[in-house]
Amino acid sequence: MQLLELISSRSASIGVIGLGYVGLPLILEFCKAGFLVTGFDIDPQKIKMLASRKSYIKHIDLQKIDTAVLDKFVPTNNFSLLNDMDCILICVPTPLNSNREPNMSYVFNTTEVIAQFMRKGQLIVLESTTYPGTTDTDMRTILEKTGMKAGTDFHLAFSPEREDPSNKDFALSTVPKVVGGYTSACLEVAVALYDTVVAKTVPVSSTRVAESAKLLENIYRSVNIALVNELKVLFDQMDIDIWEVIDAAKTKPFGFQAFYPGPGLGGHCIPIDPFYLTWKAREYGCHTRFIELAGEINTSMPDYVVSKVVRALNDVGKPVRGSHILLLGLAYKANVDDDRESPSYHLMEKIEELGGKVSYNDPYIPEIRPSREYARYAGKQSVEITDGYDLILVATAHDQYRSLNLLSYAIPVVDTRHLVSDEGGLLYQA
């Protein structure tokens, strides 16, 4: 039976590589659509938890998902089973290295593994955000070392993830899915697959267009966030409330979209993805000054916040050195347990460099997990919110914090998220 027929009849076997914030939701949607799905990951702990119907991602509660759906899902670290898959979707990380350059090892190592076990007739799709040319050049070169040809012996496509954890208005199935194929036949098969789980697919002419569309989405956000971050610093000097300015501006029904300032960028997209394009642009002799300027502004925001902490402590006659600060929120955004690239880590680090002691509270992250960049914080645990600190720093606008009367503690509160509504006293907007 041809692959299109297998997809149409829900008989195609689907393999998803990478069982994180992108791969796991994708698996659940394909299971709901009636497919048998195998999830691949190198982390044995993830495989063990998923096999026990437990989730390591807070907003994905496997115990609340219908048993019939989960019966269609098999987690494994046995990559030889890739040979049995009709469709293989790659959802692995694409971080930056210490020089802020793309670290493509996860994508390329995964592609090498696929090449060991692939067979004719399969569809291989990359979902990880990357620079234009990754799919149709770099990946294709690796896969074609098998002697098989893309577009002839196997199908190759790119379809960027558009996950937004904790967003109650949009789910994977309701967000349009951009799809680009190496050939028209590759595109047809990939669109047919995603048509089974999303309300609308958006076919484009090539994998490079699809790769570029994802970068544009995140660069657009990065640049606009940088703009309001820069205005926040300026308006603070002018004694103008940036939040009130934004609220007034967004009443215009056309030509304006509201973006909001913060203590810095977090998550796996906006702080990272723009640099994939700036890096690739150098190959063509182009300098993406606008993108790089936005990156400079956004990465400087933790320094601005720390300057507010210094000022707030100084106003009550205390130095940073020796002061005990409570950081509210470790996640990079509200109501999720995702702390990847969180500016909270930068804040902790910078305050500690000045001699301050930092504890944190986060209802979604009871204990800091091991990570490459901030390994020294692994095992640090969330503490209770009390008045036994010299200052409270609000870094994440979790809903649980909105009901707290932080100013009643009679200590300085530095608020980076406009979470504290009362003004005056010891409140400092940052």
Task: Please characterize this protein's 3D structure.
The protein is of the alpha/beta class. It folds into 2 domains: 3-204, 3-Layer(aba) Sandwich (Rossmann fold); 221-429, NAD(P)-binding Rossmann-like Domain (Rossmann fold). Helices cover 36% and strands 13% of the residues. The protein has 13 helices and 13 strands. The protein has helices at 3-8, 23-32, 44-51, 67-70, 105-117, 134-143, 184-195, 207-237, 242-249, 273-283, 289-315, 343-353, 399-402, and strands at residues 13-17, 36-40, 73-76, 87-90, 123-126, 155-158, 177-181, 201-204, 324-328, 357-361, 391-394, 413-415, 427-429. The strands form 2 sheets. Strands 3-2-1-4-5-6-7-8 form an 8-stranded mixed β-sheet, with helices on both faces. A 5-stranded parallel β-sheet has the order 10-9-11-12-13, covered by helices on one side. Helix 12 links the parallel strand 9 (324-328) and strand 10 (357-361). Helix 5 packs across helix 6 (134-143) and helix 8 runs parallel beside helix 11. The chain is globular. The model has no long low-confidence stretch (mean pLDDT 93).
Biggest sheet overview: 8 strands, mixed
Which architecture name of the largest domain does CATH use? 3-Layer(aba) Sandwich
Radius of gyration: 23 Å
Number of helices: 13
Count up the domains. Answer: 2
How many DSSP E strands?
Answer: 13
The sequence of SSEs as H and E is: HEHEHHEEHEHEEHEHHHHEHEEHEE
Helix content: 25-40%
- N→C terminal distance: 61 Å
Q: Briefly note the CATH topology name of the largest domain.
A: Rossmann fold
| CATH homologous superfamily title of the largest domain | NAD(P)-binding Rossmann-like Domain
Low-confidence stretches: none
**Shape estimate:** globular
| Mean pLDDT figure | 93
- Structural class, please? alpha/beta
With strands numbered from the N-terminus, the spatial order across the biggest sheet is 3-2-1-4-5-6-7-8
